[in-house]
Amino acid sequence: MTEHPAAALSCRVDARDVDLDLTIPAGRRVAIVGPNGAGKSTALALLAGHLRPDSGEVRLDGRIVSAHRVPGSPRTHLPAHRRRVVTLEQRPGLFPHLTALENVAYGPRARGTRRRDALARAHTELEAVGCADLASRRPHQLSGGQSQRVALARALAVDPELVLLDEPLAALDVEVAPAIRRLLADRLTGRAVALVTHDPLDLWALADDVVVVLSGRVAQTGTVEQVLTRPTSDFAARLAGVSLVEGEVVDDDELRTPAGDAVTGVRSELTDSWRRGVRAIATVDPRSVAIRAHSTPAGAADPTSSVRNAWPARVVSVAPTGALTRVTAELRDGQRVHSEVTSRSAADLALAPGVGVMLVVKAAQVALYPRP
Fold first, then answer.
1. Residues in CB range of 21: below 8 A, 6 or more apart
2. What is the model's pLDDT at position 275?
């Protein structure tokens, strides 16, 4: 028997110009990332049943729960309260008049479970999140971290087929967030999860796969490692903490940017797709990018050394971050490359917006791969 994905979207929302096609496999935790307004929250709303598509369909465990394929045809829509989907948001949303135990028992009770059994299940879930001793407290007596633990217990008490996480750690103190992140990782392993986040730490700790959404469309999918080591968009590159430079393949280990700058590096894999004229991507860690005065001519790096990349650029921004300074520079074709240099180096070079510089990178520090 073929196992259905836990959830699948293949639909459009006209008012938001969102046209999504993504899948949440059974037992996989999928992070949905993208800039503000890209369509991440729309995806969660469609899965939860709070939003209906204008065309296409939403499926849960192979069942169509929302559909509107042809204009004028009747819609299929299973309301949110009838879906086995739970959402954990920034705010726990606990009922203020109920104790922690009663909050957790509410879901099973609403689904017809006997009171005694519902309370027993609630106690088990509170134990699992380390809050059994808080069972009699009301929400105003709980800290932010405790409230989020109780909210997680409440979510899992109904045996959901899909868990939606909408930046659940964003409102927590930095001292509390790591513990809740570890708890989420432990309790959600092996479950179907859709996670919206802006924090790269959440990707590594809480996700198996990543879907990058840009302008209402899916731009890239893959495992966390695949997306963060081979980003195909500026957004994904920023998320991974690297710079992305695009161009065309001109040699076995070289691509050329639209402005004609040569980018030499190491191919991440040997495939037939790497051939002259193919669009390709180079990624560079900001810590690998050295900055020299603009008087250094392009290509002046010693050909016998591993420093084979020298790109003329103009500084866009300079941001001190303690002992280091993060410099963003624009290549001649407008592509941006980031560098992290010591604050003393930034001062010696008089780096400021508009200043011309030369960016120098060792070939061994540049990863090359064909654009998918």
1. 9, 10, 218
2. 87
